[in-house]
Structure formats: structure tokens, C-alpha cells
Amino acid sequence: MNATATALLLISFFGMIILGFHISYSMMASAAATILYLGLSPTQIINTMVDSVDGFTFLAIPFFILSGDIMAHGGISDRLILLADALVGWMRGGLAMVNIVASIFFGGISGSATADTASLGAILIPMMHKQGYDKEFATAVTMTSSVQGMLIPPSHNMIIYAMAAGGISISALFMAGIVPGVLLGAALMVFSYYLSVKRNYPKGTPFSFGNLFRALKKSIWGLGTVLIVVVGVVKGVFTATESAAIACVYALVISMVVYRELDGKELLKVVKSSIKTLSTVLILISASGPFGFCITYLKIPEMVVNGLLGLTDSRFLLLLLINAILLVLGTILGMASIIIIVTPILIPVLLNIGMSPIQFGAILILNCGIGLITPPVGGVLFIGSGISGVPIERLFKNTLPLLAVMVIVLLLITYVPAITLALPGVLGLI
């Protein structure tokens, strides 16, 4: 009976995905059919949906989404670009470096690759093209560097992963993402410098401590959001949920009072946009409740563990296989969907081979980030194409070298645990 139920769950789920149903409805419908087939109470469907979003930690997600949207529309983007320009704009290919460094700063505020690409890309892609950069390269740099925002705290995707993994430490996850995020940025900068020298892209204005000081003075209020989240959570001043609420209020004050670039009318648009994003996330997480219940009830994680371990006893090959699976899923499913579906299935496999769930969090997020830049589902790829006007096919082809750099960083994070675990370990979070 369990074998038939498992087949019913998986075939109906993937069948609805292929037919074009939204993944939330696919999960709910396939889980409901399976629960009814097993003869379990229909109330199990509602109970698990409610339980999925009934938690104090979940409140951090809407607050982080709203604070990120406020900062994205409150004048912070221009100031971060000025600061990045003062730091690295003097180098060969300076605007490419500015793009990457600005994404590090902006990612620490929004936690969203799509917000990063839409906000910074609208400014930097035309600016880079005007100064002699290929539009394809300018867009590719913007898209790939935006993934840093999902690794560097605050990241609402990290919170979704923490919940899917059974409530692991959000503070540890936040700290575990910092070094991989910076490493990704550094790797992209090295490769961008190589291309800039090869293609003779222009340098920016010479470095000046005066310009750096003025840029820092203008942007320091915006960067304060990162300090609130990181320092507050790590030091135990408040929880991740409390830090998200405080960051939201802080972002509102800075955007409307200090920078004065967000009025009531614009704020209403921001709130509507945040509600739309949150609704999608909320429905998805709710739908994962009954689907996750079926996965656990049918002992699918145990089947996956036995199946993967039966393929090879090499830890190296097993991790390579898991990354390959995640990269393929990233081309057909959305980020939150992958996190919710694969986390409870793969965590037992990784625990069996001695990998920390904290390390896997960074691996999973980066895999999903790469998926955002790959067709046919890649949301960031479509945003980049829309801003630049470069067709999807040509843009993706020109993004492949930078995607290769991202895969190299992914492998480093996979096989060198210290990259993710050293910082939270030093801070006593693990």
C-alpha cells in the first residue's frame, strides 16, 4: 500500500507540474489525494497546513521582506553604489567591481537576488553600457553577484530552510552565510578583472580617501540595518524575528525621515508589493505541510538515504551527486519550493555522512541561487533580460563563464566545511 501511495504522491505532483499547475496547488492536491487514499482523516490536511505557518520564527519572513522592499525603494541603492565606487571603482573594469561590491552591501539589506537585480541593475547596467561595457557582460555581472544577497544575512530563504530543517539555529545560519557570500563576490571580482583587462574595459576615477569618507557618510544609515540584524542576533540582544521587526521600523524611519525618498504614496506601493511576495511564500509553506507529512509518513527520506548510499560509499561522489540533483531542480523549480521539498529528504542523508545542516544550508542556498539564473524558470535571468533588453538565449550564453565561477565556489563550500562553519564556531553558535 505504501508503494502505491508513494507512486500516487510523486506521479500526481510531477504530473501537475508538467501540466503547468502552480507548485503550491500541485503539492496540496497530490498530498490530499495520497492522504485520502491511505484512509487517513481529511482534517490532517488542514492541521498540517496550519502547523506549517504557526510559529514565532515565521514572523521574521514578512518583516524581512518588507524591510528589504522599503530599503530598495528608499534611496539606499544610489548611496550604496557611491560607496562601492569609492572603494573599488578605480580598478580596471571598475564599474563591474562596483556592481559586485554594491551587491554585497545591498544583499545585506534586502536578502533578495531579485530585488538586488531589479534595483541595482536598473542603475548600473545602462551606466556600464554607456561607458563601453558589453551589455551582456554588464547584465551577467549584475545577475550573478545578486546571489550574494541570499547568503549574506538577513536572508528570509535561510529562515525558510531553518524551518524546513526542523528548527536549526537561525543565528548560526546567518553567520555561516557571510564567508561564502564574500567568497563568491571575491571570485566574481577576480574573473571580472581578468575579462576587463582582456577586453580593455575602462578604469574609474582614482582612489581618494576623501571620496570614500563622503560616500560612507551618505550610506552609513542604510548599512545600519545590517548591524541591527547581525550584531543584535549574534549577541543575543533579540531573536531573529525581533531583529526583523526592528529592521523594518528602522528602514522605514531612514527612508522617510533621513533620506526622505519614500513618501506615503510610494510606501503604499511597497507594502502592496511585499504582501504579494509574502502571499506567494505563505501559500507555498502552507502547502508544504501536508506534502511533508506524506513524505515522512511514507518514509521517503529513508528510501532516499538507502538509495543514495547504495549508489556509492564515496562521500566525495555522494556530495557531487547531491549538488548535481539540486542544480537540475533549480532549472525547473522555484527557490522556496526546492528548499521546502528537498530539505527534509536530504538532511538524513547528510547527517549519515557527517555533514552539518548548517553547512548544507549554505550549499542549498547557493545551488538555488544558481538556479535563479538558469532557464527555463530562472527569475533573475528574466529580470536581467527585461532590464537590459538582451534576449534570454544570448544573455544566458554570455553568463555561462560567470556561472562556472559560481559552481567552483559551490564546490569549495561543499568540500571545505571551515568556509561555512568557522565563523559561527568562533562565535559559539555551533
Characterize the structure shown.
The protein has 430 residues and is an all-alpha fold. The protein has one domain. 80% of the residues lie in helices and 0% in strands. It has 21 helices and no strands. Helix 16 packs parallel to helix 18.
Keywords:
mainly alpha; 430 residues; single chain; globular
Q: Uncertain spans, ≥5 residues at pLDDT below 50?
A: none
Strand content: under 5%
User: Any idea how many domains?
Assistant: 1
**If you average the pLDDT, what whole number results?**
84
Order of helices and strands: HHHHHHHHHHHHHHHHHHHHH
Helix content: over 70%
What gyration radius follows from the Cα positions, in whole Å?
22 Å
Kindly report how far apart the N and C termini lie.
Answer: 41 Å
Secondary structure elements and pairings:
Layout: H1 2-18, H2 23-37, H3 43-53, H4 60-73, H5 76-88, H6 94-110, H7 113-130, H8 135-146, H9 148-151, H10 156-164, H11 170-199, H12 209-234, H13 240-258, H14 264-297, H15 300-311, H16 315-330, H17 335-352, H18 357-371, H19 379-388, H20 392-415, H21 418-426
